[in-house]
Amino acid sequence: MREPMHELIRSEKDYIEDLRKCIEVYISEFDEAGTAHTLPNVLRGRRKEIFGNYEKIYAFHAEKFLHELSKYEDDPEEVGCSFTVWVDYLNELYTDYCVNMEQNHDIITLPEAIQFFSAIREKHKLENNNDLNSMLIKPVQRCTRYQLMMDQLLKNCTGNLDEIRLGVLADVSVVEHVEGDPGRFGLRVGTAASNENRTDLKASKEEVKVIWVKRVRELTQGLLPLS
Q1: Kind plus residue range of the DSSP H or E element containing 66
Q2: How many domains does the chain have?
Q3: Residue 207: which CATH number?
Q4: 20 to 30 A from 134, CA-CA: which of 41, 54, 186, 207?
């Protein structure tokens, strides 16, 4: 029971570090270019559309949620309290983020944007898997990981199952094909086949979409390690 809980906290710290890296590299460079009037025309005035509430998500996890999870490190059967206390705020944060990403993700697929953000990645010597696309999808991936990790806690729990069950987030499934755009896919919450519970995301190209879909499915099905 302790090991899944430790993994939850370790992966939360890794997630926070990834968010911090994106803010200190991509968002900071974007802001500096804006101040210096060197942003490409297609990116000017588009900070909110590109990054959404990314910094707000980081602040919540770094300043509040990690501390909340850590309170139950030695009492993992009560960790569901962390989710039940914050579930409404988590839903608000991530719904806002996913909706903004769905509506505006096309911006970073424009040639000028790709060139600008690729230059930032190379300047900071980040690997290809830390490109802006990969950093922006991390909040979406994190939602699926919470589901998986809470399921693992349930499997190892011998006591307060009800409290943990209350903390399990809604099931997330992948809609691989969205009509009209080969680079677009959807994430659906719950089991009902309804577009009302679906958020569409767009990759820069179909090959990238295939990678994203595969990774999200592996996460939700427990085929990938949590670290």
Answers
A1: helix 66-70
A2: 2
A3: 2.30.29.30
A4: 41
